Amino acid sequence: MQPLRNRTAVLGTGEVPWDSPVIPSDDPGLRGDGFFETLLVHGGPPPRIVRLREHLDRFERSAAAFALTLDRTAWEHLVAGITDDVPAGAEAVLRLTASAGTCTATLRPVPQSVREGRDGVHVVSLARGTSTTPDAPWLLAAAKTSSYAVNSAALREARRRGADDALFLDATGEVLEAPTANLLWRADGRWWTPPQAGRNVLPGTTLAAVAAQFDVHETSCRPEDLQRSDGAWLLSSLRGAAPVRSLDGSPLPVDESLTTVLARTALEP
Ligand code: PLP
């Protein structure tokens, strides 16, 4: 199999050597004042970018929250160029980043840790503190902002505790989402996910794709509800549907055939 080429492109400039220092040190994005998208690309020909339209829709909504306008045609052109030679059998991560200063697209291999996560993850619950987001658009609740320091810190804390991932709890102890994924679980013969409105939960493209195929209901839940469930999954673009193998040290049931069905929906274009 041909190796995957690392690639980098800058909006308005085009492709540059993949390891070029393209973001100036005073770029607002470096202070977290920016937004991004992470997409999965399957090798071709032709390469298949999973849910490109849905990701660009969310990218546009994030831009609007930053009072910026996205030139969608220019981004589509940049994306098509940078993904045109992903070889058959390869999987790549396409990351689009934008700020008022610099806009980039990068293509890299899917990390091994992400592939391993598809087989299952051990999760710990961690407080995120805030309970609900009032009507305060300046808090950027539904935007995929680059202010990911807390999300990264939660993942580090999860690893420090010997787990792979975390589930954020609000101030009342209800589950919100994972630092880079939404939660789905199965109980009473139905699919469930925590409510998103006003709770600073990112509307995931993977969850939306799963909800378009399966009847997913919203309800609030606590870690102990998940421990009594018939299974739970972390849904995200790169890992697809990662079954939760344990929560706070208690094993959760894993249904391999449901995981296969969910993963097919989650990881396919
Ligand atoms: N929630 C958060 C906080 C995320 O960062 C992500 C993805 O990075 C998701 C949910 C899942 O979103 P998607 O399915 O679009 O990848």
TrEMBL record:
<dbReference type="InterPro" id="IPR001544">
    <property type="entry name" value="Aminotrans_IV"/>
</dbReference>
<keyword id="KW-0808">Transferase</keyword>
<dbReference type="Pfam" id="PF01063">
    <property type="entry name" value="Aminotran_4"/>
</dbReference>
<comment type="similarity">
    <text>Belongs to the class-IV pyridoxal-phosphate-dependent aminotransferase family.</text>
</comment>
<keyword id="KW-0032">Aminotransferase</keyword>
<dbReference type="InterPro" id="IPR043131">
    <property type="entry name" value="BCAT-like_N"/>
</dbReference>
<dbReference type="GO" id="GO:0008483">
    <property type="term" value="F:transaminase activity"/>
</dbReference>
<dbReference type="InterPro" id="IPR036038">
    <property type="entry name" value="Aminotransferase-like"/>
</dbReference>
<dbReference type="InterPro" id="IPR050571">
    <property type="entry name" value="Class-IV_PLP-Dep_Aminotrnsfr"/>
</dbReference>
<dbReference type="InterPro" id="IPR043132">
    <property type="entry name" value="BCAT-like_C"/>
</dbReference>
<protein>
    <submittedName>
        <fullName>Aminotransferase class IV</fullName>
    </submittedName>
</protein>
